[in-house]
Write a structure and sequence with these properties.
By secondary structure, the chain is an alpha+beta fold. It has helices at 2-24, 106-116, 141-156, 163-177, 185-192, 232-249, 260-266, 272-296, 300-316, 323-333, 361-371, and strands at residues 30-41, 51-68, 72-77, 87-91, 124-131, 197-202, 208-212, 218-228, 338-344, 349-357, 377-380, 388-389. The strands form two sheets. Strands 1, 2, 3, 4, 5, 6, 7 and 12 form an eight-stranded mixed sheet that branches. Strands 9-10-8-11 form a four-stranded antiparallel sheet. Bound molecules: alpha-D-galactopyranose (GLA).
């Protein structure tokens, strides 16, 4: 299991090193890798101080580079999907000239982390990015880039922060430089993932509990719908606002503190849509705790049932699914040996996650593709380690 991640990161590392030598005329001396993630359950709960249960992927992002003496930062991305230009150059930030977001968009994740980073003093450096996470596929390519950048900077100019501070800083970079008011899930799991485990994160206390997920008879299948509906940009902040509105109407700091009974009692005071958004969040927080317990007990049937309930709630109450994701889930549930399936991540496209018997994995891919109206991409992946330094 560790091998696939190592193979993946070794391939990316070799590609990034080659590009660095070709573009900058010297070999890189530092390298870092950070994984993408799939969320097993607990969707749109992180910014409501609830629970989430993601695992780190074997897919990830590598950043290689070396310090320079000219005070300039030059970064190249090798990703064919990134917007152009693929090379950016800017001076190391100072108090009088901080970095600010702009074009190309991919560079904002890197710039945001550099700007907020607390170690130092930061020299100029050259760097190359390589990734095998599909961009915009809902597997946290952005968090992986932020966390890989941070892990790289920790070698270049060490800081003294812990993993929680690291994840929070990367989240801040995403808020301020990518203008995406995300929760903490993606950066946390990319920084803290553990091989063979899912991570139950309490997004209020920021405490984490590792839940074993290494049963050889079990598989986690990710299916990329290969669609991304463009409304994502505005829908996510709208959902966040609706949740805040519901919490305020219930007199709570967050929906984590609200019960279903309290919501029902307040129903007439809430708009119908806001009521349904809150019903999803309150239900999903409870489901996630139950699912973590079921996984500990190796009760995959219960886990699968909760995944399906999660999907239905995201589709009907939270309205962040789309026909393509619904099709993929419906097709997966027709396969013998599938425990459960649901959309994963922010929604409006991206991926589904399916929990199934390992022996059913091939048939599941065949059947899902046969039923799906477009071309799907499949990833059979095991829980991997979080971000790490790669030796050169
Ligand atoms: C995106 C955000 C996360 C989380 C999910 C939905 O991935 O980055 O913080 O809110 O959506 O669960």
């Amino acid at each position: 299991m560790a091998e696939a991640a190592e193979l993946g990161s070794a391939r990316l590392l070799a590609a990034a090193c080659r590009e660095h030598e070709a573009a900058f005329g010297r070999a890189p001396v530092l390298a870092a890798w950070a994984p993408g993630r799939v969320n097993l359950i607990g969707e749109h709960t992180d910014y409501n101080c609830g629970f989430v249960l993601p695992m780190a992927l074997q897919l990830g992002t590598v950043l290689v580079g070396s310090p320079t003496k000219d005070g300039t930062i030059s970064i190249i991305t090798t990703s064919a999907d990134a917007d152009k230009p693929r090379r950016v150059e800017f001076p190391t930030p100072s108090q009088s000239s901080p970095l600010s977001p702009g074009q190309p968009r991919w560079a904002n994740y890197v710039k945001g982390v550099i700007q907020h980073y607390k170690g130092g003093p930061m020299p100029g450096f050259s760097a190359v990015i390589a990734s095998d996470i599909p961009l915009g596929g809902g597997l946290s390519s952005s968090a992986a880039l932020e966390v890989a950048t941070y892990t790289f900077l920790q070698q270049l100019c060490p800081d003294d922060s812990d993993l929680v501070a690291k994840a929070l800083l990367c989240q801040k970079a995403e808020h301020t430089f990518a203008n995406m008011p995300c929760g903490i899930m993606d950066q946390f799991i990319s920084a803290m993932g553990k091989e063979g485990h899912a991570l139950l994160i309490d997004c209020r206390s920021l405490e984490t509990v590792l839940v074993p997920l290494s049963d050889a008879s079990l598989a986690v299948l990710i299916t990329n719908s290969n669609v991304r509906h463009t409304l994502t940009g505005s829908e996510y902040p709208t959902r966040r606002r609706q949740c805040e509105e519901a919490a305020a109407a219930l007199g709570k700091e967050s929906l984590r503190d609200a019960t279903m009974a309290e919501l029902e009692a307040a129903k007439s005071r809430l708009g119908e849509e806001v009521y349904r958004r809150a019903r999803h969040v309150i239900g999903e927080i409870a489901r996630t705790e139950q699912a973590a317990q079921a996984l500990k007990n190796r009760d995959y049937k219960t886990f699968g049932k909760l995944m399906v309930e999660s999907h239905n709630s995201l589709r009907d109450d939270y309205e962040v699914s789309c026909p393509e994701l619904d099709e993929l889930v419906a097709a997966a549930l027709e396969v013998k040996g599938v425990y459960g399936s649901r959309m994963t991540g922010g929604g409006f496209g991206g991926c589904t996650v399916t929990l199934l018997k390992a022996e059913a994995a091939e048939e599941a891919q065949r059947h899902i593709q046969e039923k799906y109206s477009r071309t799907a991409t499949f990833y059979l992946t095991k829980p991997s380690e979080g971000a790490k330094v790669l030796p050169l």
